[in-house]
Hints:
Elements lengths: L15 H6 L10 E6 L9 E8 L3 E5 L10 E7 L11 H4 L6 E14 L2 E11 L1 H16 L2
Antiparallel strand pairs: 1-2, 1-4, 2-3, 3-6, 4-5, 5-6
Amino acid sequence: MSTNDNRLAAPCMPSDDEVNKRGYRRLPRPYPVEVRKLSFPMTGRSVETVCCDISKGGICVEAPLHSLSAGDKCQVRVLIPLLNKFSPGFLKVYENDAEQYLLALAEVAWVKPVRGRFLAGLRFENVDSDQSKALERLVERAFAKI
């Protein structure tokens, strides 16, 4: 997965009303993300984009125009350096700490224009339990340092 440095701009920060509606705390980080729509036949290419924020429950990404629609099912691959450091399982001992991916199945909850670009909210539907716990711990640790 390649990253394009000019896409890694500061993420859009939500309004106070949006924060109050959320079920999970979201970590604003520009992690590289690969999204592949699940459809039959599996001919679709993946979309390489960037994360605006991430939580245990889902992720907000920049979405190229017409690449994602509400209701789409997707496979999501997020590069999160040192994710396994927060894993409760044996993976933190055996995996390389440099490049670690969170893999999930997700549903596109919404797509909307925000400040001249399109954002998409993806709700995680299926994530490995150790990866989910590691992500939750990573987010908690980041907010504990604030």
